[in-house]
Amino acid sequence: MPARCSPAVTGTDGPEPNRPAASVRGAEARAWPFAHWLLDDVLPPAAQAALLAWDPGAASHGGDTGGRRDARNGRRVFVTPATRREPGLDLLARLFDAAETREAIAARCGARLAGTALRLELCLDTDGFWLEPHTDIGAKKLTLLVALSTGAGAAEWGTDLMTADGRAVARASGAFNSGLMFVPGEESWHGFVRRPILGLRRSLIVNFVSSEWRATGELAFGPPA
After folding, report:
1. What angle is formed at CA 103 by the lines to CA 54 and CA 107, rounded to 5 degrees?
2. Given strand 201-209, what is the order of strands in its sheet?
């Protein structure tokens, strides 16, 4: 699937850099409990603002879903061709799908993104939420989780990194606009240990998925041509 060209983002001093690509290039590598990368300053202000303003209503908020996001299928929130009518969401999708970003990801973590499509999910979790250990292995060729919470204690709401037996042994930061990136594999166990959420735990899941992904309505630009 050819990557789309990133639009110019113009500031007072001229075009701004592709912030997701720059964040990936500067990511800190960690090896335990599986290979992953920690990112800072992932999204540009316009994309941040669009995601913070986007709330389809209480039906899209999820508390205890039995440890699985797919238990709420039909009420999940995705960046799609329709929602990309909002300029900040369109910018978000085009920056991540740009050749510069794809190349930066491949160079930094070895992800094989040729022929993949972009999937962007906005998650709105409430108190009681937890996620069972899982790996994302399969059609997902890259996972990048971006923290967007602003509530009290949000820095502690990052993803838990786990061992194969489900023990949480490390935790990514939940600091605003920080990220956790990894290539799904047999060791990429992660989840969310239940703990108090005061307000709304907002995050963005970025995936690049292969042609095996069947839920094409979840894709930012539709299925690969």
Report:
1. 115
2. 28-30, 36-39, 179-182, 140-147, 201-209, 117-125, 77-78
- CATH superfamily, with its number, for domain 17-216: q2cbj1_9rhob like domain (2.60.120.620)
Question: What span, in angstroms and rounded, lies between the C-alpha atoms of 72 and 75?
Answer: 6
Reported as a single tens digit per residue, the pLDDT across 46-86 is 999 999 999 898 888 988 888 878 767 667 899 999 999 99
Q: Delimit the domains of the chain by residue range.
A: 17-216
**pTM of this structure:** 0.92
Judge contact between 223 and 84, C-beta under 8 A: no
The strand pairing partners of 192, in sequence order, are 131
Sign of CA pseudo-dihedral 10, 11, 12, 16: negative
Q: How far apart are CA 144 and CA 24, in angstroms?
A: 10
> Alpha-carbon distance 111 to 106, whole Å?
5
